[in-house]
User: Fold this.
Amino acid sequence: NWIYDKDPVKYMAELDRVVREANAAGLYVVVDLHDNVKSGSPYPLAVPKPEDIAFWKIIAAHFKDDPMIMFDVFNEPQVRGWQAWLHGGGTIGNGTPIVGFQDLVDTVRSVGAKQIIVVEPGAAGGDTGETGSWASVGNNLINDPNIIYSRHVYRDLSLPPDQQDAKWGPILNHHPIYYGEWAFLPNSTVPIQCSGVAHDQADAVVTNFLHYMAARRANWTAWSFTAPYLVQDTTTF
Assistant:
């Protein structure tokens, strides 16, 4: 949203081009809001704010008739506590109110967009370098019939199935689940993501996780199709 604010016309032209090309190739597009310092935010923490409400009104209204769009309303939020995650509360910066995920979802719906909305737990689920778990969410679920619950996983990729299940808590087998980001990164800039796994076990770790996701009917997006991660270069791929 901070990049959008710098040049809305250019931003939307570029976004439209990418979405058209992807849709023409038969691909869904997940529009994922990264509102953090790296994306230009002047705020110290990545938490939903009124600026995000304004952004989603524009984006959701623009794409409300595209059935091959999904909206991931806030990437890796740093909100603490499930009630604050759901309904907001408190302030950031010089008194800017923190809004909840329900507010973000309601904003998308308010302009007539009916597509799938993706939500992430982040720090509310005990973020420890991944993006938290849903184990303790309780009844703090989004009031909307078209939600998919997401997690990002890197470091915990090698956990056994029962421990993976535990991180979904009451979501598992009751709501659609989505690994919005996952990878086993041999070239990670964060070495802990591969700690404790021998090099010759890497293929088995990835294969086992793929089997786990298939067994749980989990949707997923691997991160990321760019060198030096899932591909070595963008000439031969």
In short: The chain is about 30% helix and 15% strand. The mean pLDDT is 93.
